[in-house]
Amino acid sequence: MPDNEKGLSRRGFLKTTGIAAGALVGGGLIGGLVGYNTKDNKQISNVMTSGEQHGVASSRARMFFTNDKDFMILSAATERIFPKDDLGPGAIELDVPYFIDHQLAGNYGNNSKEYMQGPFKAGQSTQGYQSRLTRAEIFQQGIAKIESESQSRFKKGFSDLENNQMDEILTAFQKDEVPMTAVSSAFFFKLLRQATLEGAYADPLYGGNNNMDGWRMKNFPGHQGSYAQVIDKEAFQKIEPKSLSSMQNMQH
Amino acid sequence: MAKTLEKVDVVTVGVGWTGGIIAAECAKAGLKVIGLERGKERSTADFAQVHDEFRYAIRYELMQDLSKETITFRNNRKQEALPMRQMGSFLLGENLGGAGTHWNGHTWRFLPYDFEIKSITDKKYGKNKLSDDYLLQDWGITYDELEPYYDKFEKMAGISGDGKNPFQGKRSDKYPTPAMKKTPILQKFEKATTDLGYSPFMLPSANISEPYKNPDGEQINACQYCGFCERFGCEYGAKTSPEITVVPTARKTGNYEIRFHANVVEILKEGNKVAGVKYVDRVSGEEFIQPAEVVVLTSYVMNNARLLMVSKIGEQYDPTTGRGTLGKNYCYQVLPGATGFFDEQMNVFMGAGALGMSIDDWNGDNFDHSDVDFIHGASISMTQPGVRPIQMNPVPPDTPTWGSDFKKASIHNYTRTLNVGGQGATMPYKENYMSLDSVYKDAYGVPLLQLTYNFTEQDRALHTYLTKKSEEIIKKMGAKTVVPGSPLTDYDIVPYQTTHNTGGTIMGTNPENSVVNTYLQHWDAENLFAVGAGNFAHNGGYNPNGTVGALAYRCAEGIIKYSKNGGSLV
Ligand SMILES: Cc1cc2nc3c(=O)[nH]c(=O)nc-3n(C[C@H](O)[C@H](O)[C@H](O)COP(=O)(O)OP(=O)(O)OC[C@H]3O[C@@H](n4cnc5c(N)ncnc54)[C@H](O)[C@@H]3O)c2cc1C
Ligand code: SF4
């Protein structure tokens, strides 16, 4: 890609913004800067032209996490769950961490449409979620536990770990080996995994699935009006995905 | 103090499928009807931007607000029941149309066998085929008696079908619209099942194959196979739902009013009748009494039972003594099936909720059960509902559930995975029932419904047998890797299974064996009706709503008759 204002290579971008490429190790660099998509010229030029702000990435509010460090831990963990590979971007480039941040600040994080009256008791696994904590509280605690687990195992912050070290810690959470309060680490991991997939594949309007690349990798065409004319076809139909935002533009 | 309103002829509690049908029929007959719906108004216009998996299928936009009301659950009487804090195993409806807005549209008639299951089983296999712990009973009505009402529901809803099921009960007429498109995916199933000697047919669908005007003059449009159907409303008005059919029909008469945000908390009993209902306006918090000549419970299985329980109408079922009928015979379904991983990519993201082909060779008593230790069976289908990327991340066995191998495998297999699945019938069991919870309450202080439920030996045997059959089919379809569904363990309320809850307010021939008679009229209060899948004496091997709709039409006929003559309808 040409190193100009409209389209910038990753390396070029990093150089220009003065961030050492080394900071990328572990995938934990501040998601807001790395989470751009190289194909999405508009967004990059937005970030680039800081002097002549003619628009900013509109879906990257930080609504829940106050602390960059926590946000980086979340980012690194989601990237291990859904890593960048030869198929395409991982969670960070897809803006999954922002998606999760937004969700934690809303109905999901506050369990608003769920029964949250006591008494709270542990119950059987067949009885489902019985924690007194909201998801926002579970994530807050979970992120802190990921970090303390990292410090005690490797004497390093989680986002500075090697991939295999991160995986070791996440596996410990998944296997319920990390003590947490009023919730199990396995449950927290399940939430984290599910939220990561949601962020990778929800309509980009929600702040993740940047540039619909989650859909593109998976060959899911997003919102299409009708398949009535093609559903008879034997051959697999590769269809360029469309976001619901195309509907919104129609209304302008 | 509750404010008493002006008396009406008929009040329905809830306006979903059953409430809508009762309203349309009674209002057309000149009765003044009020529908009390706890949720809000909605229509096709609300679904213009419904192609949003995250909001509708994952965050349950259209479903019940559990912060206000849920149920409690335990697997058996020794456990402590705890609230279902999040939606999972089933997706309860709320707002105009109820679950009839976000349903799939599979529209079946139960088999003639279902209605006489006890007599047929005893006759054919002897009295001890199942132990006494299974509370099997006939429904008190035969298929032939219910047939005209099935026909009425199907014509109102414009159901698309080919009528080629050799096991179906006798039909007085054909399906009102032709079957949906037989897509390449369905053809694979058709070929495989034909080769295996079965008789495949198109699944009867309420996603309509061509534009249709129903006998009430309501227009239903042609399905676009958009792939956002189950858990979504239809932006085309092509999925038959109460709000595009029976609700406008009722409104056109001028005899119908729906009061939204009206949460009914009690049925008011007065001697051997009911006087009306009490409700809370969810917006203002005010309490109202709505007097009525006839009260109809149309609030789905759970609340139909719960409202009777909190209003102390009828006798609560007690599993220790076997006494009482209210809450008895709660049934669900088991889902035998097999997943197949294919080499070729398929258009799995296209589809419609009820687009599918089925076989009935292993359903009901369509095969001999002499050598198996269960009765009944399942319809087995290949559906193409349109699968979406958040929910669908299929990976072959031994693939990790996250990380790079997971990402590759789930992306690769998303377009290469099909599932053959059965809807396994369940038989009533003495330990499976509904009652009132003594600890947890809803937002209005009313006790929650308590569900005590687990799978039975009959369920396990049926599940194992039918899973094998599904496995054979998907293998024959050319799957490279076949993964049978795992054997049943304990019923788990977390993963979605089906919203096919049944029983609790069962119908029958007398007050000793049922809550309502075959017009769904309550045995203890002649002007009280309770209608829905709660009336099923057991659950069959299909989706419930064809039968729910038929019962609602019969109930409406009963109400109209009762309004003229009074007294018991049987
Ligand atoms: C995801 C999903 C898919 C389904 N797919 C199929 C299918 O393919 N085929 C099939 O046959 N069936 C299907 N069903 C089931 C089908 O939707 C139901 O059979 C049908 O909606 C039942 O009608 P009902 O009137 O009993 O309840 P509903 O349609 O749910 O209506 C009940 C109404 O009562 C209201 N209500 C409840 N309590 C109160 C109260 N206390 N006060 C005031 N109002 C109240 C609710 O808000 C709701 O609007 C599906 C269900 C779901 C959830
Ligand atoms: S699949 Fe058909 S019936 Fe279902 S929502 Fe789409 S257009 Fe409507």
Automatic annotation (TrEMBL), chain A:
Q: Does the keyword Disulfide bond apply?
A: no
Mind telling me which Pfam families this protein's record contains?
Answer: Gluconate_2-dh3 (PF13618)
- What keywords were assigned to this record? Membrane, Transmembrane, Transmembrane helix
Task: Give the InterPro entries listed for this entry.
Answer: Gluconate_2DH_su3, TAT_signal, TAT_signal_bac_arc
What stretches pass through the bilayer? 12-36
The protein's name in its UniProt record: Dehydrogenase
Organism in which the protein naturally occurs: Domibacillus aminovorans
TrEMBL record, chain B:
- Glucose-methanol-choline oxidoreductase C-terminal domain: residues covered: 428-552
What are the entry keywords? FAD, Flavoprotein, Oxidoreductase
User: One matching Pfam family, short form?
Assistant: GMC_oxred_N
GO MF terms here are: flavin adenine dinucleotide binding; oxidoreductase activity, acting on CH-OH group of donors
Boundaries of each Glucose-methanol-choline oxidoreductase N-terminal domain copy? 219-329
Spell out the family assignment given in the record's similarity comment.
Belongs to the GMC oxidoreductase family.
Q: What is this protein called?
A: GMC family oxidoreductase
What species is this protein from?
Domibacillus aminovorans
